[in-house]
Amino acid sequence: MIMGLVAVLLLVIVQRLFELQIAQRHRTALLARGAYEVGQGHYPFFVLLHSLFFVSLVGEVTLWHRTSPAWWPFAAVMLAVAQGLRLWCIRSLGVFWNTRIIVLPGAALVKKGPYRYLRHPNYLVVIIELLVLPLLFGAYGTSLVFSLANLVLLLWVRIPMEEAALAYKKTAQ
């Protein structure tokens, strides 16, 4: 059980670090083209939330001796689907994909890939991950607490801020 947890967490953490590199490269490129960042103040809370998520997951599984439920394959499939959706988001947005809110005045909104169907598909990926990754290992507390915390930050802070930035961008064109 612990080896499985370590293996999955290493994969996810390496993926996150790679994504942060992509995001930084995109941010640098967009800022060089005249873009600006919105909502820097809430970004550290997302970093903290995601960092504490991993600590909580390891703590709950190891300290409370959690075990994978019989239906863990369903959670694994959901996690794999979420990863596929994330890759589709990154590919569809190209240089506009980021972990931050970066606005390039005059740039058209991306309406391809999953963005044809959902306004914020990348946030759906994060919602799924925070819900099902802990469930793979029976960490129901981590799943519940961090899913709710993420939803609060997304629904009350991040998405309205991003929508306002996109609306401003649209009117400024």
TrEMBL record:
<keyword id="KW-0489">Methyltransferase</keyword>
<feature type="transmembrane region" description="Helical">
    <location>
        <begin position="43"/>
        <end position="63"/>
    </location>
</feature>
<keyword id="KW-0808">Transferase</keyword>
<dbReference type="InterPro" id="IPR052527">
    <property type="entry name" value="Metal_cation-efflux_comp"/>
</dbReference>
<feature type="transmembrane region" description="Helical">
    <location>
        <begin position="123"/>
        <end position="156"/>
    </location>
</feature>
<protein>
    <submittedName>
        <fullName>15-methylpalmitoyl-4-hydroxy-2-pyrone 4-O-methyltransferase</fullName>
    </submittedName>
</protein>
<dbReference type="GO" id="GO:0032259">
    <property type="term" value="P:methylation"/>
</dbReference>
<keyword id="KW-0812">Transmembrane</keyword>
<dbReference type="GO" id="GO:0004671">
    <property type="term" value="F:protein C-terminal S-isoprenylcysteine carboxyl O-methyltransferase activity"/>
</dbReference>
<dbReference type="Pfam" id="PF04140">
    <property type="entry name" value="ICMT"/>
</dbReference>
<keyword id="KW-0472">Membrane</keyword>
<feature type="transmembrane region" description="Helical">
    <location>
        <begin position="70"/>
        <end position="88"/>
    </location>
</feature>
<keyword id="KW-1133">Transmembrane helix</keyword>
<dbReference type="InterPro" id="IPR007269">
    <property type="entry name" value="ICMT_MeTrfase"/>
</dbReference>
<dbReference type="GO" id="GO:0016020">
    <property type="term" value="C:membrane"/>
</dbReference>
